[in-house]
Amino acid sequence: MNVNIQTVHFDAASTLIEHVNKKIEKLNNFHDRITTIDVYLKLDNVAHQIKDKIAEIKVNIPRYAFFSKECSKSFEESFDNALDSIIEQIKRKKNKQMQAA
Prior knowledge:
By secondary structure, the chain is α+β, with helices and mostly antiparallel strands. The chain is built from two helices and four strands; from the N terminus they run βαβββα. It has helices at 14-24, 75-100; strands spanning 2-8, 36-44, 52-61, 64-72.
C-alpha cells in the first residue's frame, strides 16, 4: 500500500501527519487489496480571514477508485469525515460483490 500525503498552501505539523497515517492504517481492515491512497490537505479562501480546511482522500483498489472530499474548521475533523465516507463506500462495494457472487 502506497500512501501519498500532500499539503496545499501550508506546511503540515508532524502531529497532523501522524494522525493521518494512524487512521489510514485502519483501511487495511476493510479491504486487503488497496494499492494507493492519496491524501490532499488544502486551505480554502486563502485571501480571506476565514480559512476552511479541506481534506480529500482517493483510494485505489484494482478496478475501482473511491473518492471523498470534506470541509470543516479543522483538518482532523475534515480528514476523519472523509475517511468515514471512504469506509462506507468500500463496505457498500464489498456488499454488492458478495450479493452478486
